[in-house]
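Give me structure tokens for this 274-residue protein.
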Amino acid sequence: MTSLVVRRLLIDLETPFTRHWNGGDAFRSAYFDALSMSFPVGEQFFIDSVRAGIKALPEAQRAEFDAVGQGFIGQEATHRRIHALFNGHLDQQGYVNTWEPRILRRLERLKGLADPRHAVAITAATEHFTAILAHHLLAHPQTLEGSEPRLQTLWLWHASEESEHRSTAFDVYRAMGGNELWRRRWMHLVSFHFITDVLRQTARNLWHDGELLRWRTWRSATRFFFGKHGLVRQTFGPWRAYFKPGFHPSQQDAQEAVDWLRENAAVFSVVAER
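Here you go.
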């Protein structure tokens, strides 16, 4: 099983950034801000789910997952902390995070499901979703063109680690005896909520800026989603692959993440390797 490195990102997140930090583009800034708003509570759920899933395994299997589980938890805890700092600046700019309360309400309802495999299946599905978004970002870094180097580093580092640990929750779910039907069902539901939530939060961010109804905003959004290298066009195939028999996240390419982490070792320090 592949080891996971826990890294400390060496960038300044104390200094505020501009409202349209992503190259002056209101849509791209609002979209990435929306993603960040979901991360602290989402990452905590992933940590709790994987930890509980490993704990539920028989002792012999648990030993197999302990190290990679600790690496996964360490990476996600770092993402949670970094994006909490990023989101603090958004709070100061007057943005209202309506996505996080929706997540918390859904998590409250999940407490009624006694079987911990459900939470791990949700985590595996979300990790696949974020991994394909991460791959798209790493393959098309022009999405961050014009943004400050420290913010480019933040998003590309996060994307690289999402690719790196994309198999962890999936493997834990399999080890727990999770069935294929529920794996696919949860992916459908996660996809629906993720897509509608990120669009709602992006729209709210743009409305706050007075940019929602501007032509340039919609032109940027159309290019981002449906252009030659658009997100929808590039990620639909990898998303659909999740429903195929015999699928495993490692079947999808992650070389961009490996390359980025190797080529940018100066922007982080290694805390631990599991």
